[in-house]
Every structure is written in structure tokens, then in C-alpha cells.
Amino acid sequence: MIEIDKISKTYDGVTAVDEVSMVVDTATITVIVGTSGSGKTTLLRMINRLVEPSSGEVRINGEATHTVAKTSLRRRIGYAIQGHGLFPHYTVARNIGTVPTLLDWSQEKIDTRVDELLDLFSMQPDKFRDRYPAELSGGQQQRVGVARALASRPDLLLMDEPFGALDPIIRAHAQKDLRHIQRTLGSTIMLVTHDMEEAIQLGDRVAVMDAGRLVQYGTPAEIIQQPATEFVAKMAGGVERPLRLLSLYPVSDIIEEGTAEGEPLDANTCLRDALSICLWSGRDVLPVVNEGVPAGRVTLAAIRARAEGPT
Amino acid sequence: MKSVRAAELRLSLPGLLLAALGFLALLAPFMTLAANRIVAGEGLTAWHLAGPDVTLPGLIAIVSGLILGLFAAWPKARLIGATLGLAGIVWLLSQSASPLLEGAGEYARVSPGLGFWCLLAVLMLVMADAITSLSPGPRTRIALLASMLGLLAIVLGTGLLSDLSIMQEYASRKDAFHAAALRHLTLAFGSLASATAIGIPLGILCYHGPRLRKIALPVLSFLQTIPSLAMFGIMIPLLGWVANSYPAAKAMGIAGVGFAPAFLALLLYSLLPVVANMVAGLQSTPEKARDAARGMGMTTWQLLMRVELPLGLPVILAGLRIALVQNIGLAVIAGLIGGGGFGTFVFQGLNQTATDLILLGALPTVALALTAAILMDVLVELTNPTPRKAS
After folding, report:
1. Contact: B311, A89; criterion CB under 8 Å
2. Cα(B223)–Cα(B115) distance, integer angstroms
3. pTM, whole model, 2 decimals?
4. Residues in B touching A158 (Cβ below 8 Å)
5. How far apart are the first and last CA of chain B?
6. Is A165 on the interface with B (CB under 8 A)?
7. What is the pLDDT of residues B225-276, one digit of tens each?
8. A262 and A183 within one domain
9. Does residue A244 belong to any structural domain of this protein?
């Protein structure tokens, strides 16, 4: 558990982060979202003390971060940034092994860990271990960057716009991979983005920052349905809100008894995609299958009901 | 088919220019014959040097070398042409010296003339251009350099050129020459080593402290702008005063003239390239990589040793290269204040108006500077930490 307790940062009298408090649960993804200049990156960098807080403190599993030496604190916290920040003169294996090397792991243990992580990120170790960052595609570089941040099994993984430099298709892939890997490893992740769509897709909890303040901290559904301020409502997408809300739930949530005609839908499909299929194929009812077995149906009316905001 | 052949026969533009200059140079006096080592000599064109058994093979080699240097598509032909041409001018030089001296008097001297020097320059440029188009790897470049130096050593060692005036100047002061060579190398490399020992830590401090950087770099730039003669001049009273005030310094051999002021002046000149490139090299690490390194818990020292230094090494070595080549050249001025080195011959020659004695100091300096530049370039390339992008 990460506790951020009334943390502030002032630069020459200008407040970048203003008394932010929040609690992050273990094994969840928390996304900090805001416009540029909102203080989101400063907040993240205060957690591993790349920026020293002016006041307040951060506790990781009960231990205050300012009681630990900066370097040993950072070696316990994974760090991945936009544009990956890989060392151009290190091979993929050496890049991933950076923190384990700093922690004096044996070479054998490091090699095993590197191969394990490359496998996890679907990059064949034999093929990629000895390549240099310049020989990788953008998506591969980004995966190596995240693998490097996870190498020493950190208590916490901090990510600053990790997908910012990727094109939309690779970006969607990377987000899905991150979700999958976080569930597999049970990692605790704090991620900064300016993209609310990304926040809603990835976050178990979303923290919205505006002008150095934390204006709302809640589940994606709360952010969309009960925005705390005008700003949050605007960030949450205005007219796109119903669609974003639908993207949060799977079809299995509103499945009902019965059958329907046409191409069936998997129960894990999100409601936004189900709505899209209804509109495109001109159907009001879609059959649903769960792992190939007919499981019932879903109606356009039921989908609509889930998209309604508070009245 | 036709177009391929046309492309192959396309002439290289620098080749055309160089060949034109080469042919013009052939019209200039190739060698000069003088009554003694001081007076100006009489110029002789290449075909007047000796009998056709000597001049014909030489001229054919030079002309065909210049023609081979024309083909844009065949850098190897250009390289062979340059080598052939160089062999031609060395042949003419070595074969015609002793016939010319015959009956010309006891103190007569033969020297290479304007035509020779121009042809040498033209053929070296053809060679450099051909080597650039071949873009050889570091090993090939070292091998090429070694074979050039080897050939030079053979030509000089076998006494082929011993009738030339410059070689006679050498023969009469062999020991002084070797001492000067050693002193020149000590001045150039010693001051570079000291500049490196001071400049690398100073560069690291400047990199971390913008305030120090704002003071140190302008001061070093200012030192660089002091004309070398003035700099050596300033050293004389300065070190003279030190030697007079501190007997210990005097005992160490520090004096207003001689080795110490020359060494110190060269050291001061080398500091700017060393420190400035040190700072630039360290700054060349991508900001993202630096941020990631800090975020992963590297200490400042680890960041320096593992990331910033290896990534900056080519730029840092390029600074040492500039300093070394500059030192080799500037060390000539040391001759003026009794610092020794090849400059001794240059200034002696100037005083005696003996051109060949000047050359005895100048030519080894040029050769040394060229060799150092090529070696350092190879070193810079070998230390490039990031492999070329795979296609």
C-alpha cells in the first residue's frame, strides 16, 4: 500500500503540487491524469524522490520514503518513461539487467531474470537478448523499457507517459499487454498520462489533477458518472461519456435468457463494441457465447440503459 | 548495357581538377640545382633531369597515375593511380639526384622543386579522395597507414634519397635530429597527458557545475586566442620569476627558457579542446537515458562511469585528437625559446636561409601530425559505443 500524505512542491513560490493525499492499494493500477502543467509528473517523481517534496510524506508499506537513501529507494521502485530512456550502448539484456546489477545479483540470476521477462513480453530471448535498442522497433523498445522497470520485482512501478511515443495501434497493444502483465505479476502500478481514454482503459482507480490539486480520485465509472468538477467532466469526454462508460463493462454483466439470430458475441466483449455491432448490423438483439457455448443474449435496450448518466 | 558503361566511365570532378593541376605542375621545375646550401638554385623540369632511361619511366608513371585518378566509378583504380604517381615522382627524385650532382661542384645541392611538391600534394589528395570513397574499416585504415609509413621507411632507410640536400642536412646532424624528435614527442604527448589529467576532472566539474563552466570555458577560450609567439613570450618572464624566487623549482629544471615554458604553453593550449569536448561528450547522453538512470537508482558516479562516459567517449577522444594535432604543430614554436623539438631546425634554417634545414624540421612535424590524426580518428571510431543501425 502506498500512502501519499499531504505532499506539496513549490518552485520559487509557485506551487506545482498542492497538498495531495491519496492511498494506492497493492496490486492495482492507479492512473494520474491531467493536462500539462497540472503537476501530475511532479507528483509521480516525488514518489521516488527524483523531486524532493517541499512538505508532506510518502509511505510505502508503512515506511516513509525520506527515511531511506534515495538510491536504494529507487532501486526498489520500477521506473519507466515516455520514449523508453534505454541506454543506447547497452544490449537489451544489459538494459533489462540494470537494476539487478546495481543490486549485485549474480550474473546467472540476472540472465535467468532477463530471459523470463523477455518471454513475458513475447520477445524470444535468443533473438533479442544481444540486440541494441537502435535495432528494435518503437513498440519493442517500449516493452524493453517496461521489462527493465520490472526486473528487480519492485514493490511499485512508476510509469510516466509510457506509451506516449507509440502510434495508436501499437499503443492499444501495449496497454493490453500491461494490463495482462500486471494481473499476472500482481504489480502495483502508478501511471501518469494526459489521455483520459488511456486512464479509463487501464486504471483500477483514476486520479484527476488540475493546477497542482487532486480534484477527484475514484473508479473510472465514478469519474465518468459523477465528475466532481466541470474540469473533470470535460476531461471525462463530454459527449463521449456514455461510450466511455460502456467500454468499462463486459457483455456478461447484462446477459439475459433467450436466443437471437446472427453472428454471436463473446461474453467478454465490452458493451461499447456490442453497441457498435448492433448499430452496424441493424440488429436489436445479439446472441452471446461463453467460451464457444451459447450463454444467452444481449439487447440494445439493456445496453442503452447502462449508458445513461445520472438524472 | 550502354548506360552502365557510360556510368562506369564517368569522370570524377575532383579527379579532373587534380589531374589538371598535376599536368600544370609537371611544367614547373621538378628539381633545383644550387651551387651551395644557401643560394637559390636553378630549376629543372622533369624531362631535363637526366637521360630518357630515367625520365621516361618516371613521366609515364606520373601521367598514367594522374589519368587513372580520373575515374569516378573506380576508387581502387584511383588509389592505384595515386600510388603509381607517387612511385613515379620518388623514382625521378632518387634517380636524377646523383647525375645532377656530377660535375656541379663540391658544395652543390639538389632539392625537390615546386613541381615535385605540387605533384606530391595532388597525388596525396587523389589518394585521400580514393580512400574516402572506399570508406575502409578501421583495420584497413591502420594497414594502409602502416604500409605508407613502411614504404617511407624503406625509401629513407635504403639511402635512395641520400643525395638530396635535405638528407645531407640530416646526415650532418643525425644525433641532433633524433634528440629533437624525442623532445618533440615528449612536448606534444607530455603536455597532452598533463592536459588530460587536469582537463578530465575539470571537465567533469564543469559539467556538474554550470557556474564553474561559465567561468572556466571563457578563460580557456581566452588562452586559446593568445598568439602562440606571445604565449611563449609571456612564459619567459613568468617562469623566470618562479625559478628565481623558488630554488626548489629551479632545481626541478624550471627556467624562463627551455623545456618548461614550452611544455606549460602547450598544456594551456590543450586545455580548451580537452575540457570543452569533455563537457560536450558528457552532455551528449540523451536526457531520457539520464532520467531513467537516476530513476533506477544509479548514483552520480555510476551514472558517470556506466552511461555518460561511455556514451561521450568518441566526443572526448575527438577533443584529445584536436589537442594532440595542435600540440604537434605548436611544439615547433618551442624551438624559438630553446625548448627543443623539430622547431630547432626550422629556426636555425630561417636564420641561415637554408630552406632544406627548415624542411628538415617541418616535414617530420607534418608527417607526425598526419599520423596522429589518422590514428586518433580510428580510435574515435572504434570507441563508438552504439552500433550502426541495422537496416
Report:
1. yes
2. 40
3. 0.81
4. 295
5. 30
6. no
7. 888 888 888 888 888 888 888 888 888 777 777 888 888 889 999 999 999 9
8. no
9. no
